Amino acid sequence: MRGGVVSAMGPREVILRELETWRAGQAAGRPGAGAGGGGGSTELEGLKLVWNDRESAPKESLSAIGVRLSRAGGRTSIAAQQAMLSLGRAAFSVRDGRLVLVREQARYQVHELSAAAVDAEVTLPELAPGPQVSPELAARPQAPPEQGGSIRTAQVTQVKRAAEGDDSANARPNRGALVREALLQAARGIDLTLGEGAKVEVAGVTARLKRGTDTLNLGPGSLAVRREAGSLVVELSPGETAIAGAGADAQQALTFRLRVPLNDAQETSQEIVADVQGGPIWLSTLGVHEGDLGLFDVARTSIVSRARVVLSADGRTLGVDGEGRLKNLSLRSPALADEPIAGLDLAWRAKAHGKLDGSKLVAEDAEIDLGSMRLIARGEYEHSAASHRVRGSFEVPLTACQSLLDSAPRGVVAKLHGMRLAGSFGIKGKLRFDTASLDRTFSLDWGVSNTCRVAEMPRELSVDQFKRAFRRLVYGPGGQRVEIESGPGTAEWVPYEDISRFMEVAVLTTEDSGFHRHSGFDQEAIKNSIRENLRKMRFVRGASTVSMQLAKNLYLERTKSVARKLQETLLTMYLEQELTKEQIMELYLNVVEFGPLVYGIGAAARHYFNTTPAQLSLGQALYIASILPSPSVQHFGASGEVTPAWSEYLRKLMQIAHKRHRISDEELEKGLQETVVRGSPAPHLAPRQPPGDEDVLVDEGGAWTAP
Predict the structure, then answer these.
(1) Inter-residue contact 318 to 309 (CB < 8 Å)
(2) Secondary structure of 449-501 in the HEC alphabet?
(3) Which domains does the chain have, with CATH numbers?
(4) Number of C-alpha atoms within 13 angstroms, CB side, residue 221?
(5) Is the dihedral of CA 611, 614, 615, 619 positive or negative?
(6) pLDDT tens for residues 531-588?
(7) How far is CA 536 from CA 91, 130, 260, 516, in A?
(8) What is the number of helices (H) and of strands (E) in the chain?
(9) How far apart are CA 515 and CA 524, in angstroms?
(10) In the chain, what is the straight-line distance between the N-terminal and C-terminal CA atoms, in Å?
(11) Which residues pair with 201 in a beta bridge?
(12) β-strands 194-211, 107-123: how paired?
């Protein structure tokens, strides 16, 4: 028969079962047909096949053209010019595919499988916030125990319990067992279809992995499937064809090899092992496109990998042992830097294992090398119920400061081009805590060897420019950029000696209690910040000092990225090196934002209280300092007076300032009588009010803030 269309509608299992029933009936009714089906021959050519699992919005479908089927001598050959297969989130396109089946022991087995090209597109699910059970999985009939039904039943129960809030060890789903069981069933299913000496080799395999707006392309490469020592082995070698065609001696193939056991012999043989070995090879040779995952210049980026991943026999533990390197890596990532990052040289090695339910992770040895910078870490993490326990150590070996700066790609330190450093830097520390008893167990200690100094700074970054009038860009109420003039001699500039001393007292009370003790970085504030963020299990508090805030305001954008934080650190070190504490405070109070388009203490004193910085009272100064974290939020009532809750907050700040010996008894007493009024140069004075609710404030360790 030549030409024609065969269409089918219905679930895959039903279609295959009915097709086999029909085929068996045809064979039985054919004169002279033997059990092996070798008594006759069939030939179909130029067919079109169409299948959908359901009529409306099918999840699985097949469309093939140019199909040729021939059967003779117990062998069935099926070929297609083009085939499209869709299975849920995965879609496959096959060109010039060929499948040869041999009927043995009353079933068909694959003798040969090949294709000129296979293209796969897989859409990965977005990361879910928590464990979920799909209606299909929960309602699906359970298979008999020998087919893995008991395992799946237990897993569905665990996922349901976890979704209902049960965080016990038995409730956490064993995702590894689910993955392992799926791989075992797939491997054994493939093994049953393979005949003796079967040959499965597919060239021209390409793939696209998608998640949200991100895409990763791979291939073309070759795929091979074979039996080996009681296991099914799947090998994928992307880039192999391109290397052979180009004759590039500098490149070596990168091979992904997966070994899945087929028998129940020894426990160790039941491990599922994946190896990624090979390289160096260009990302472009692997099939990675410009723009994939933010990558660019992929023709110059090489990768080397010598890694093994092992899934344990019970599916509960995953182990990683290996090393790798990415050379000349270039990417665009707003989380890392505002500008493109080019020429990154990143190497890693790790020996670690962990439970796939997230209850334990042990890093026996881990290292990340970025150019000359090395970060070495060891430790373990455990999780049970509401407790997260960490014990570990970290180290950055002593390295020349300039070498550390040179290790960062230009896109990461774009603002610092031309800076030269002298000295060396190293750090070694230990971290330990249990969130169930954080105050008792939290311990973070480190020793720093730091002799870094700025030996040379480009003219455009020199602090000398801030000793005279200068122009800078600030943000307006709608986020638009506005250029303003600042510096000594400008209309809004206020010298340090013309600012009420209460203003510095206020800033030291609310923002940076250790300003005069540290050299730009407050170790105690950093520890307190980490502890409080762990307590809330989210970011609730930073550890920026006045010097760090000044560096950000003078030099950097508002964006939040790793690069901005690194540049802020180096610029803070430079400001502390070149300026006195008085000069830093003067600059800070004259450039920081106190409200929408209200920059500097001169503008703030006039805007809020119609007065000069020299005349600010204790209460007024504390109000201005208290809004620094959120300058667009105001706390005045309809009458212009500060709200009662915020007034109580200001009084608590006064008590803290007094406790730290920054104000006298008389200044405290007078301040407690103040009620700050917007637009009024003089605050209202009244007899001291009774103490308010003690829970109005939260001690943030060095600075008090309103809840």
Answers:
(1) yes
(2) EECCEEEECCHHHCHHHHHCCEEEEEECCCCCEEEEEECCCCCCCCCHHHCCH
(3) 1-28+43-131 (no CATH), 459-705 (1.10.3810.10)
(4) 24
(5) positive
(6) 888 888 777 777 889 999 999 999 988 888 889 999 999 999 999 999 999 999 999 9
(7) 43, 18, 42, 30
(8) 16, 29
(9) 12
(10) 81
(11) 224
(12) parallel
Residue matched to tokens 């404030």? 697
Tens-digit pLDDT profile for residues 66-95: 999 888 777 888 899 999 988 888 888 999
Cα distance between residue 583 and residue 555, in whole Å: 17
pTM of this prediction exceeds 0.85? no
Using CA atoms, how far apart are residues 628 and 593, in angstroms rounded to an integer?
7
3-state helix vs strand vs coil in the chain, percent to 5: 30, 40, 30
Q: Is 605 helix (H, G, I), strand (E, B) or coil?
A: helix
Closest C-alpha among 370, 631, 618 to residue 475: 631
Structure tokens at 419: 């800076």
| 133-137 CB contacts, 8 Å cutoff, 24+ apart | 133/159, 133/160, 133/163
Of all helices (H) and strands (E), which one includes residue 377? strand 373-384
User: Which letter, b or e, does each residue of 486-519 get, where b requires 16 or more Cβ atoms within 10 Å of its Cβ?
Assistant: bbeebebbbebeebbbbbbbbbbbbbbbebeebe
Looking up tokens 């002799």 gives 451
